[in-house]
Description:
elongated, alpha/beta, 2 domains, Rossmann fold
Amino acid sequence: MVIHRLLTKSISRFIFSLGLGILSPIFTPIPAIPAEKIIIAIPDINIEDPIEIYLPAFQIKITVKSLENFAKEGQYTDEFILYSELLKDEIKELQQLLRQQKKEVQELLETPFDLDPSIVEAFMEEPAGKEALKRLGEIIQTGENQNGSEALQRAFELAVADPDGLTIINLLKKFPGDIFIELQEGINLVDELTERFVEENRILTELQTQAENVAVSQDKRNFNNLPDLRKPGNTRWEKQSFTFRNPNRDRSSPADIYLPNISRNQLIPVVVISHGLGSDLNSFVYLAEHLASHGFAVIVPEHIGSNAEKIERIFAGFSRPVDGMTFINRPLDIKYLLDEIEEKIGSDPRWQGRLNLQ
C-alpha cells in the first residue's frame, strides 16, 4: 500500500514536471538551438482552479535543448513566439501562473532522482518493471507514435549512469530520436491511480468499521485473571534449530523453535513469527524468548528469498530484486514448515504429544 502511494506520487510528479516544464517555454522567447524534437499532443484544457481557462486540443513542437536552456538559465526560445502569439488571449492567466512557478519548474526539470544504476537495470528486467515501462511508453512515445518503452529503457539506463544522474532533462536528452508525448494518456494514468487509492481507502474504512463493530459486540474479558504478558514469564525454555524445505525453493530454509519446559500432559500453544523483508530469524529473538517464557512454543522460520542476505546482495548488485513469486513463497514457507513439524510430532519422542498446531 505504501509502495503504491509512493509510486503514484512519483508518477504524478514526473508527469506534472514534464508537462509543466515543456509548456513553460511556449510563453516567452530565446534563440533556438537545433536538437532532438519533442512533439506534445495537448488535450482539451479546461481549468477552473486556481484559474479559469479553456484551450482546444493542439500540438506543439519544441527542442530538448530549449528545455535544457530553460532549466539551467531560466531562458525561453523564440521558436515558441508563434504559439505564444496564437494563444495570447487564451493563455494570459496561464502565462502569469507559470511565471510565478518558474523557479519550481526549473528545479523539477534539473533535480536528480537518487537511484542506483544496478537497481534500475535489474528492476527494468523484472515483469513489474517492464509493465511500468510499457505503461509509461503509452505517454512518452517515439516520433512515429509507437510505444516508447524500449527507447525509455535505454534512456533510463544512460541517464542513471550519467554523472549528472537521472533528471527529466537528462532523460529527454538520452531518448533516441524524436519524442511524442501524449499528455492525455498521462492524465488518464493519474486518474486511474487516484481512483484505485480512493477505492483502497474505502475498503480500509469499511474493514475498520466492521472491526470496531465486532469489538463492541464481543464479551469483555477480565484481563486481571490472566498473566500479564507485558512482564517476563517464569517458564523455562530451550531453543532448537532445524531446517525445512519449501519445494518451490532450490535449497532448505533454516528455522528455530523456542520450546517451553512444560509437563508432557499439557499441550503447548504454537506461535509462528514471520520476519519482514530484509530481516532474518534473529530479528525477533527478544519476542520469541519472551513468549516462550509465558509457555508458548515459538517457531521462527527464515524466508531465504527475502531475508537480510538477499537484500544485501541486491544492493551490492549481485542479485536480482525480489519478484512476485517471493511473496507467494513466504506463506508457503510457513505451510511446509508446519507440515514438517506435524510429522516430527508423530515420530520424534522429544516432540510427540507436546505441540498444539491448531
